[in-house]
Description:
Radius of gyration of chain A: 11 Å
Number of helices of chain B: 17
CATH class of chain A: Alpha Beta
Number of helices of chain A: 2
Strand content of chain B: 5-15%
Helix content of chain A: 10-25%
Number of strands of chain B: 11
CATH class of the domain at 61-244 in chain B: Alpha Beta
Structural class of chain B: alpha/beta
Radius of gyration of chain B: 22 Å
Largest interface: A-B, 12 and 15 residues
Oligomer: heterodimer
CATH architecture of the domain at 61-244 in chain B: 3-Layer(aba) Sandwich
Number of domains of chain A: 1
Helix content of chain B: 25-40%
CATH topology of chain A: Alpha-Beta Plaits
Distance between the termini of chain A: 14 Å
CATH topology of the domain at 61-244 in chain B: Rossmann fold
Strand order of the largest sheet of chain B: 8-7-11-9-10
Strand content of chain A: 15-25%
Number of strands of chain A: 4
Shape of chain B: globular
CATH superfamily of the domain at 61-244 in chain B: NADH-ubiquinone oxidoreductase 51kDa subunit
Amino acid sequence: MSRxxxxxxxxxxxxxxxxxxxxxxxxxxIELDEWGYPILADGPVPPALRAQAKAAxxxxxxxxxxxxxx
Amino acid sequence: xxxxxxxxxASDALTSGPISTITPLHQSPIPHAEVVRLLAAWTxxxxxxxxxxxxxxxxxxxxxxxxxxxxxxxxxxxxxxxGLRGRGGAGFPTAEKLTAVAAAKGRAVVVANGxxxxxxxxxxxxxxxxxxxxxxxxxxxxxxxVDAADAVLCLHQGSPxxxxxxxxxxxxxxxxxxxxxxxxxxxxxxESSALVNFLTTGAALPTTGPRAAERGVKGRPxxxxxxxTLAHLALIARYGDEWFREAGTxxxxxxxxxxxxxxxxxxxxxxxxxxxxxxxxxxxxGGESESLQAVAVxxxxxxWLPVSVADELPLTxxxxxxxxxxxxxxxxxxxxxxxxxxxxxxxxxxxxAHESAGQCGPCMFGLPAVAxxxxxxxAGRRDRELLDRLERRLGVVPGRGACSHPxxxxxxxxxxxxxxxxxxxxxxAGRPCRWAAQQPWMPLxxxxx
Lengths: 70, 449
């Protein structure tokens, strides 16, 4: 179980085209697989990273990355 | 493909109504294989019933007119008590779907999935050719249960079921007319969200988004059920839940159609009770035609099992779940001792990679990569990185696509590694088995095999 509650990030796998910005902006939670597609850590975003997560979602060129209300 | 069923029936008993009263003429020596529900017409005289014969055999459907027949929620309650589970692979409780669609806002749509995309299975095509009216009865019952305004039967372009289903439709007048939609013959096109997408936009591709039950075809609540599931529904509406539970187990009640192929004497489609041990199912198909090493159960999203594990294993959702395995589509492919499970798996993975819709990166790139690793393994390439790389890829792909295609393919690959563990070690050490280049046993469409 996660220690946090609140919003979490998700990716729309059809919309995602592996630009990879998200992993640069949010390396604490997102890493890229060998083909450049994001692998997200499970669970809600730690409070300290929420602003960063919001920025990453906003920066996604295909709007595939989403920050959902938890 | 030869069509055989498990029990012979007395022909004069068949005109007397509910099939629960029918007694087998020749008692089958194999328990769990005596049940003949869906394929009674075939077992009786080797052909499909027309509408009159069908109604004589099974009795008429109870009234499905609002205000006249059984109340909708009571019908759904009966399906719940019957414990009917989907026959398309996932085994989802049918009553839960019916309830969700009936409760959703808007005029519902019923989609009967008769695509049968899995190459190891031919039971749905068999059912539609041999008991088309049972399927159409089931669509009518489902329409009534969820108060649907439209019904669509989805078949692949060129399907052998097109003609018999059209002919059967021409004999009936159902309260909700059934349209036939011809779906492109791609493997993922018959996935539930792909069907909904196809009927809404014309693109037969899986989607992300809300469940079909809430927002399906053109935004309307949609019930997507496999055609065999609907045929069982037609029988539950006639004979009730207690009758339904006379066959099968507590958690996997009823009978199921089962395609048996590979190295058996009489490959074909059989009707069996859930709970039949796999060895008995093989016996039903005349037994092994040569000595076996493993069976593939559940189609291309299923699992390989060494015969030592498979033999006594009952074919039920619960017995498979206890081993952490999906039961999948009811099909068995028997793999002889003189065959290479690693090579068979490599071929399956190449086919599944080829059949990716190419929408989601982890599927589009991950499946070909895993298929390539398996091909190298099958060829006995000495590569110290190979198994580690394969393990890592198997771990990273699942759960990251819009539909379950990548998860199913990866699951099949991962379970092959454990079912053929000894062979895998030998192959990885540069000692492939001598059967690797043989004719394949897993039935796959030609261009991929």
